[in-house]
Design brief:
heterodimer, A: mainly alpha, two-stranded antiparallel sheet, 20 helices, 2 strands, about 70% helix, globular, B: mainly alpha
C-alpha cells in the first residue's frame, strides 16, 4: 500500500493528475499503513484506546454527515458560471442524457455479483463528480469507498484521454466538424439569483436524497451570483475548496488500509468506473444524434458528451476535438453549457440513486 | 465477492437494477425538464 501511496504522489506531481487530491491521498495511504500507525485508533497496552487523527477526521468529516464532500460543493458552486447554460437552456437535456452510463454500470456491477449498495456506489463514479461518489458510497456504507474515490478522481483527471476515445467510437469526422451558431441571449441578474434557488427546490422535490448535494452546490452559486458577498465567494472558490480538498484526500486515506484496498474487487471497480465514464459520454453523443432527427438547427453530437460533470475538462475536450475536425468549429460555449448542466444532473442522479436503490434492499 | 457468487442473486439484482435504470432516468429527465421550463420562464419574465 505504501508503494501505491507513492504511485499516487508520483501521478499527482509528475503527471499533474488531480494533485490537490491524489497527493494527500497518497501521503495518507503511507500514514495509515505504517505498522501500529498513530494516525489510526489503537489499543495501547496499559493505556487503552487512543484516538488517531485520521480516524477522527474520517468519523467527523465523512462518516457522520459527509461534511467534507458537502463543504467542497459550496466551493464548486461558487466556481461555476451558469451563464452559458442560462442563455441556452436546452443544453440542460444533455446533462440528463449523459447520466445513462451510471445506470448501465449499476446493472453490470449487479450482474458481476456486487451487492446492490456496492454496485450503486461503483456506478456513481460515472457521475464524474468526486464528492458525489464519496457521499453516495459513504451513505450506502460501501466497503469500497476508497477504491471508488481513487477511480472517480483518477478518471476525472483522465477525461482528456478517455472522452476523445469514447467520442470517436460513435461519431464520424463529418459529424465532429459540424459547426454550431452561437447567439447567446443576455441573462438578467434576477435570473442568475433565482436559478440556484429554483434548482434546489425542483431537485429537492424530485430527488430528496440529493438535497444536501444540490443545496450546497447551489448555495455556493448563490453566494457567487448575489453580488453582495464577493469576498466570501472568492474565499469559497479558492481557500475553502483547496483546504477541503486537502483534508478530503488525507481523510479518505483512512479507507486505504491494505487489507481493504489490495483486492481483486478494486481492479474490477477501476474497470467499471472506466466503463461508466465511457458510456456516459457515448449516451450524451447518442442523445444529441437522436435530437438532431427532429431539429432544424443541428447540434454537433460531441456537445452531448460534455454533459458529464467533469467541469471544465469535458467542455475543453469537445472544443479541441471540434477544432481538430474543422478549424472554424468553435464549440466551447455550447459545450460549457452542457458541462454545467452535467454538474446539476450528476447530483440529481446521486440523489435518485440514494432514493431508489434502498427500496431494493 | 466471487467466492460466494450466486447467479440467482446476481440475476435478480440485475433485473432490479433495470427498474432503477428506468425510474432513475425518468426522474432525472423530469427534474431537468422542470428546471428547463423554469429557466425559460425566468428568461421571459426578467428580460434585460
Amino acid at each position: 500500500m505504501m508503494v501505491l501511496g507513492g504511485l499516487l504522489i508520483y501521478l499527482a506531481i509528475k503527471k499533474d493528475m488531480e494533485p490537490s487530491l491524489l497527493l494527500p491521498m497518497g501521503f495518507g495511504a503511507i500514514l495509515v499503513n505504517l505498522p501500529l500507525s498513530g494516525v489510526l485508533n489503537q489499543v495501547m497496552p496499559g493505556i487503552g484506546e487512543t484516538t488517531g487523527i485520521i480516524s477522527w477526521m474520517y468519523e467527523i468529516g465523512i462518516e457522520a454527515a459527509e461534511a467534507l464532500p458537502l463543504f467542497l460543493f459550496i466551493g464548486i458552486g461558487a466556481m461555476i458560471d451558469f451563464g452559458p447554460l442560462l442563455s441556452n437552456p436546452r443544453m440542460l437535456l444533455f446533462g440528463a442524457a449523459a447520466q445513462f452510463g451510471i445506470f448501465l454500470t449499476f446493472s453490470l456491477a449487479s450482474l458481476l455479483g456486487f451487492e446492490l449498495k456496492d454496485a450503486a456506489s461503483i456506478a456513481i463514479i460515472g457521475a464524474a463528480d468526486g464528492p458525489t461518489s464519496i457521499l453516495v458510497s459513504n451513505i450506502f456504507k460501501s466497503n469500497y469507498i476508497s477504491a471508488i474515490a481513487v477511480a472517480a478522481y483518477s478518471y476525472m483527471a483522465l477525461v482528456p484521454i478517455i472522452q476523445p476515445f469514447a467520442i470517436k467510437m460513435v461519431t464520424t469526422k463529418k459529424e465532429r466538424a459540424m459547426e454550431m451558431e452561437y447567439n447567446p441571449k443576455s441573462v438578467s441578474r434576477t435570473t442568475r439569483i433565482l436559478f440556484p434557488i429554483i434548482v434546489t427546490i425542483v431537485a429537492g422535490l424530485a430527488a430528496p436524497g440529493s438535497i444536501s448535494l444540490v443545496g450546497f452546490l447551489m448555495f455556493g452559486n448563490l453566494i457567487r451570483e448575489c453580488g453582495k458577498l464577493d469576498s466570501l465567494s472568492k474565499t469559497a472558490q479558492n481557500v475553502l475548496a483547496n483546504l477541503v480538498t486537502l483534508f478530503l484526500g488525507i481523510t479518505i486515506a483512512f479507507r486505504m488500509q491494505a487489507a481493504e484496498f489490495l483486492t481483486f474487487e478494486t481492479l474490477l471497480i477501476m474497470l467499471l468506473g472506466l466503463f461508466a465514464f465511457v458510456f456516459d459520454s457515448i449516451s450524451g453523443v447518442m442523445f444529441a444524434k437522436i435530437l438532431n432527427l427532429f431539429l432544424k438547427n443541428k447540434i454537433n453530437p460531441m456537445v452531448g458528451a460534455a454533459g458529464i460533470s467533469a467541469f471544465p475538462m469535458s467542455a475543453r475536450v469537445v472544443q479541441k476535438m471540434g477544432l481538430e475536425a474543422n478549424d472554424q468549429n468553435h464549440l466551447l460555449m455550447h459545450a460549457a453549457g452542457a458541462n454545467v448542466a452535467g454538474q446539476i444532473a450528476s447530483v440529481v442522479a446521486g440523489g435518485v440513486i440514494l432514493r431508489l436503490v434502498p427500496l431494493l434492499f | 465477492m466471487f467466492t460466494d457468487y450466486s447467479w440467482e442473486i446476481a440475476y435478480s439484482n440485475f433485473l432490479s437494477s433495470l427498474k432503477v435504470m428506468g425510474l432513475g432516468m425518468l426522474s432525472i429527465f423530469l427534474a431537468i425538464v422542470i428546471i428547463y421550463g423554469a429557466v425559460s420562464l425566468l428568461a421571459v419574465l426578467f428580460k434585460e
